[in-house]
Amino acid sequence: xFITAIILLLILIALSIPIAAVLxxxxxxxxxxxxxxxxxxxxxxxxWSVATDxxxxxxxxxxxxxxxxxxxxxxxxMYSAMEIxxxxxxxGLMHCNVASSAVFAATSGSSVATAxxxxxxxxxxxxxxQYNQPLFLGSLAAGGTLxxxxxxxxxxxxxxxxxxxxxxxxxLAGIFPGLVLAFLFMATIAVACMAKPAWGGEKKQVGNxxxxxxxxxxxxxxxxxxxxxxxxYAGWATPTEAAAIGVMxxxxxxxxxxxxxxxxxxxxxxxxxxxxxxxxxxxxxxxFLNFVLASIGFTQVLTDIIAELGxxxxxxxxxxxxxxxxxxxxxxxxxxxxxxxxxxxxxxVGLGYDPIWFGVLLMVLLETALITxxxxxNLYVVQGVREKGPAKDVIMGALPFxxxxxxxxxxxxxxxxxxxxxxxxxxx
Length: 428
Fold this sequence. Notes:
This protein is mainly alpha-helical. The chain has one domain. It has 21 helices and no strands. The radius of gyration is 22 Å and the shape is globular.
């Protein structure tokens, strides 16, 4: 059963079939091969119960929030403000890439949206100021991954739904690791530019008055982050309601700066519908597959296999980390999470680990998958925004940041309190 499922999954992925179809076909195939009952007749009930889950309404809201920020010009002004403040640091605009990605991630919740938005603004500046192209592009791809970890993260919402874990606590747990990872990225840039000063591009001299004026451009995205996350922790709104409040705040800002129009709103809504349709179809098919796997005893078989190995909890966690690093090279992050979490999470919790800690660790591993070839989605996003030049520049430039992520994984395994301390201090 186990070998058959893995072979079928690999064959379907190798055929470049859309991942939602892969999950559905795999579920139907395992149903016909191993189930004594026609499980496919329960597909309607299973998918309906998932589709009507109120918390999932937060996904299109956060996607729409990111679309509005992108199309209203707020993200571009935010990047320009970061450029003024960080332009003189060794690595200049590359620090700006990471910092801007962290701020944008704290409002959009999407890694792909973050990489595309900041990349569109940053790449022309990097070329104009003669930065080392591979490292500059790598900083964009890596900075974009912060959208998975820093709240409000769409992936953390899905993890919370899959494991029935508190989403507000997952958000709290992601704050410190997200900031530490952003610092590790910036440290990587600083070390590289001190070793090779020419990689750091041209330095810009900016007066203190201009720096003070630039703060104004940072206030809108930070204000939206404060409204969204603050309303959740204050108990005023659920994550779904907070996402809707964030959208209204973004619309208000767009109207205030004169960028709100029917054309802009239409483009944002179309982009939101495309992304949401893709994500929701994957989620629905993944839930049906998980239903089939549990019904035919696949989950229990996997648990028994791991129990028979006789490994310690730490050895098992290390094996799980290696497993995610390997499959992250070949699978898209959302599908990887949805197909594996229902199987892996019960094992991790059974070993005595906190599911909130595992959620944060998994987000870092998913971030690593976003910039590891050959299926590193952010690599393709940045290359697509760049439009010209070899893709190997982006891949080679991302490798130092992959190393920084491995350091982050080690920190989380060695000091789980980094993720757990804040949720333990705040009762929700």
